[in-house]
Amino acid sequence: MRPAALLKLTWLETKLFLREPLAVGFTLAFPVVVMFVIAGVFESSGGAGFRGVRGAEYYVVSNMAVVIAAAGLIALPPHLTAYYERGIMRRFRASSVPVAGVIAAQLAVCLGVAVAATAVLLALARPAYAYDPPRFLPGVILGFLVGMAGFLALGLLVAALFPTTRTAQSVGMVLFFPLYMISGAAPPLSVLPSAMREVADFDPMNYAVRALQDPWFGYGVTATNLVVLLGIAVVSTTGAVLLLRRH
Amino acid sequence: MAAVVEVEHLRRAYGSVLAVDDISLEVEQGEIFGLLGPNGAGKTTTVECVEGLRRPDQGRIRVLGLDPERDTRELRRRIGCQLQQAALPDRIRVWEALDLFASLAPGRVDWSAALDQWGLQGRRGAAFSSLSGGEQQRLFVALALINRPEVVFLDELTQGLDPAARRVAWDLVRAVRDRGATVVLVTHFMEEAQQLCDRIAVVHRGRVAAVDSPQGLINRHGGGVRVVFSAAPGADLSWLSGTPHVHAVTRHGPRLEVTGDGPVLAHVGAALIAHGLEPDDLRTEQPSLEDVFLHLTQASAPEGADR
After folding, report:
1. Cβ neighbourhood burial of A185 (10 Å; 0-12, 13-18, 19+)
2. Minimal Cα–Cα distance from A86 to chain B, Å?
3. What totals of helices (H) and strands (E) does chain B contain, helices first?
4. pLDDT tens figures, B228-278
5. Is the ipTM of this complex over 0.90?
6. Domain spanning B3-219: which CATH class is it, in words?
7. What is the pLDDT of residues B9-53, one digit of tens each?
8. What are the domain boundaries of chain B?
9. A95, B91: Cβ pair inside 8 Å?
10. Which chain A residues are closer than 8 Å to B51 by Cβ?
11. Rounded distance, CA B305 to CA B206, Å?
């Protein structure tokens, strides 16, 4: 595929994404809304439960992970599954649009939209909560990208596992909400019962939250967070590729 | 004439269902070649193997000298495919689809001409999901032709088109052939095959039952010419069966039906006059492709194919 054609395809996929109300709502609007609600509630809280920063700042940063998870689990799976289910992928393939090119374009669009959604989130939160800038910006960027890799790969796997748009969408939602509830981006982990906190250790979103919080709040870059997310990215992508090859 | 598409002993099963049993065919440069058969005969599976969209279990395929499995990319650039089951994203607009597909074609392609040609000018900015079935179909054909392909595969081209749009589509297919391209047309629609195709392969139960021009098929498999006229119920016409080129005579009340071959009409006419009969409704009924089709698909139950 020529670069010009790939660029055109990516631009087209961007427009298609922006015409998809569910995808736009969940990646662009939902994180901002829940951030304002929950940061507002815990605005003046703080202390160890909020990792030593003000509640408002804690939630502004944590909701970046909500953007990441929504892009991967809610926006991507139904869109990609529909391409297989409805014969769109066959139509494209028959006209020299490689499957890898279509998927690459969709992943690029999800990443681009997530970056834009994060920028919107941070920009809107700034006047309301005057949070401190990241203590270690490169670490935050790294955490964001690795988090995206992990969740886009999970989204690919969901799309590959489920044959219909309807199931891919439901499964994405069903995964998203419980993962969100125990990720630390909803109630702080410190208020969760200990059993639930142990379950949270298996929540990929929890690692995405911490991969952003640690460098932002001055706790450096924690290898565990990145390794877990990268591991998810590698395993899920491998699984998805094997499954999609069979289509 | 060089063969543009060569298929030898193609076989493809889906699980325990044998879709294509043993199909061989050759499509020549510049012709409109039809694959005619009932649903489930294996037509679509065959063309999808030829297009490189499916992998055959067995058999050898060459398209423009290329192997669809090995030289897929080169092949896709030089052929155009309209698929039976396909879709575009719901919210893609007509012009966006044409623009994208044109950007994949070698050289510069002016896709706005395709809008006019296929009567989509007024729907330029419409979302794919808002198009009628006929409009979607026309868009798919426009997309299949946008890279000026050397071979075009049209699978159920006129499905969903109204009769007027169908005629327009037929004219465009002829125009594509006249431009020098080869057309492979999959259809279960007799009139379309008869109107358009230079040669037809009748596909039945995963095999090719016959290949010939429409007229050739009719001559060979149509069951001969029927001469029909009326006669008084009591008239003795037993001499008819002895007339040259007559095979059989059947009588339905006043209506007589004589089947025969070649110049049977002239001989029957001469014999009638010689016997003092001058029916004013003497005529022939030519067998149609439909007769051929029924003859080939009902009479032959090929060994081993029981689906």
Report:
1. buried
2. 6
3. 10, 13
4. 999 887 778 888 888 999 988 988 888 888 988 888 899 999 999 999 888
5. no
6. alpha beta
7. 999 999 899 999 999 999 999 999 999 998 889 999 999 999 999
8. 3-219, 224-277
9. no
10. 94
11. 8
